[in-house]
Amino acid sequence: MITPQEIKNKAEKKYTSFLQSLVENIPFSKINIRGDKSYTKSSLPEFEKEIQQIISQSKEKKGFGYTLEFQKVKTKYLGVQDLPISIYFDNEKDFLKFLGRKNEVELFSKSTKCILETFPELKNWLIKNPLKVIANQAEWESILKVCKYFKQNPKPNLYVRELPIKVHTKFLEKNQSVIRELLDILISAHIKIDEKLFEKRFNLKYAEPQIRFKVLDKTISDRFFSGIDDIAIPVSQFENLNLPIKKVLVVENKTTLYTTLTLPRMNDTIAIFGSGFSVFNLKYVRWFDNLKLLYWGDIDVQGFEILSQFRTYFPHTKSVLMDKHAFNKFFEDDNGTPRNIYTKLNLTDEEQELYEILKTNNWRLEQEKISLEYANNFFDEY
């Protein structure tokens, strides 16, 4: 026999579709609850107890809630008994009072009315996301202020906290998820659809990642940077650099970047701190396409996975000092970080073979452990 709690659980599952019908102005229709459990057959007292439980929470006893319809049925073990053949809510008031959602729905109706009056084009979003309307119930006035501003200024080119909107300074940051969904609809013609970062997507300024690099050719550092050879600039500025270089060395770790100036003189070359998987910040540096690109990372699974990632942006990248000879010469039995990546990597056959060895044995050789003398000799002959 179905229990009152099971009836409530099933009624809760009907709640979302009820809210959707309110947005669509569909009149309330009877909500049926399927009573799909059979009666307990062990004894008449147990059967009567089950019946009394569901009756005790019904509209008949409480004045609201679900209605029960009974029918005399000849049972196999208990003879002729009155069994509930239908459980339903025949009006909105009974349904909402049973769920304890009356006040919530009143606020929902006010919110959806206000949203639709301001932006009728959000109707389909409301139908698909009624629970998000409720989850943001206390914030809709401010959310709509933000949306109005972007509707009138789809390309603000300001920092989030500079926006002239009368909301709390951190409001937009805290409510980005729902605002993003709405702006995707309201200003779809102006967004950068492929950008995931909120600020980039909606034409805002943001604290850009810094690209740190060292100029390994003193002639270039003197000519373009007043002799400064250790430089960090925003990624957008780095993307527009115009230097007379022919080669770029990307190193995984900061310590290795510090030591690159001890390398043999490298004409027309800069070294970049890739900062591990943050090499994705370099993916739009299209002037790399015509340069010789070298990647020097740790000899571990992550090092080769970062190399693989970098090659998705720049397929002509060549790895350096990431080979079996360097590994065998300097390996000190260090453990790596286990990985469970099974996708095909952008590695050469030799790199893939070493990657599998490192992965199987969980080995690591950090690039800092390769001696400067060894690195110097390598680059002196490169």
TrEMBL record:
Q: Which Pfam families match?
A: DUF3322, JetD_C
* Protein name per Swiss-Prot or TrEMBL: Wadjet protein JetD C-terminal domain-containing protein
Q: Which domain of life is it from?
A: Bacteria
Query: DUF3322 domain: from which residue to which, for each copy?
Result: 4-184
The cross-references to InterPro entries, in alphabetical order and at most eight, read:
DUF3322, JetD_C, Spo11/TopoVI_A_sf
Q: Where is the Wadjet protein JetD C-terminal domain?
A: 206-376
Q: Where are the transmembrane segments?
A: none
